[in-house]
From TrEMBL:
PROSITE patterns: HTH_LUXR_2, RESPONSE_REGULATORY
Residue positions where 4-aspartylphosphate is found in the record: D54
Record-given protein name: LuxR C-terminal-related transcriptional regulator
Cleavable signal peptide: none
Top-level taxonomic group: Bacteria
Domain annotation HTH luxR-type: ranges: 145-210
Keyword list, A-Z: DNA-binding, Phosphoprotein, Transcription, Transcription regulation
């Protein structure tokens, strides 16, 4: 499958190498840029099928490329993005992988791309809505992602687990041998500790269950 790609990499030799490789496998490079500002401008103008960007780029040579990718995913929901980096930039990596429901996105470490076929396969997967993340990136992000359920007491864990199973407040009270008022209090604490929006309790129950399932 031929794709219209934008490549963002400030190291000229690496950028030219990527261009040559991608062209050899049949992709069309519609823009090749060396800084994050030009990446944003080119993406807005060209509407690519996928962008490939480094993390550390001008103008600040810190995490400009990654921040640009997050911004573009917000501006163009579903835009496929592959980040190539020499290291894991934790803060914006989480934002990138959480964007768009975690679909059509990838984060690979340059030194761990073992073969051309692995790289080109990853591009195809991301373009088709898949998620490709280097195992080392996952390990580092897992270490810093705080479990939102850690703040819950053992009893609140029990109550949330029963909510996830579809039990009503009255059946939860019966199973735990506590009063309905106590169940209501535990549920209120759960909503508060998980920082769920103040809407209807039914909606917050669903959000609480989704948090439970994710963790």
């Amino acid at each position: 499958m031929s794709l219209r790609l934008i490549v963002a990499e400030d190291a000229v030799l690496l950028r030219e190498g990527l261009i040559g490789l991608l062209q050899r496998v049949g992709h069309d490079i519609i823009a090749a840029v060396g800084d994050s500002d030009t990446l944003i401008t080119a993406t807005r103008a060209e509407q690519p099928d996928l962008i490939i960007t480094d993390v550390r780029m001008p103008p600040t040579r810190s995490d400009d490329g990654l921040r640009a990718a997050v911004q573009l995913r917000e501006e163009f929901p579903g835009l496929p993005v592959l980040v190539l980096s020499q290291y894991v930039e934790r803060s914006y990596a989480l934002g990138l992988l959480d964007s768009g429901g975690g679909t059509a996105v990838g984060y690979l470490l340059k030194e761990r791309i073992a073969a051309v076929t692995d790289f080109t396969t990853a591009i195809d997967q991301i373009a088709n809505g898949g998620t490709v993340v280097d195992p080392e990136v996952i390990q580092q992000l897992v270490r810093i992602r705080k479990d939102p359920l850690e703040a819950l007491s053992p009893r609140e864990h029990e109550v949330l687990g029963l909510i996830a199973q579809g039990h009503t407040n009255s059946t939860i009270a019966t199973q735990l041998f506590i009063s309905p008022a106590a169940v209501n209090k535990h549920i209120g604490n759960i909503f508060s500790k998980l920082d769920l929006p103040t809407t209807t309790d039914g909606h917050r129950r669903v959000l609480a269950v989704l948090t439970y399932l994710r963790t």
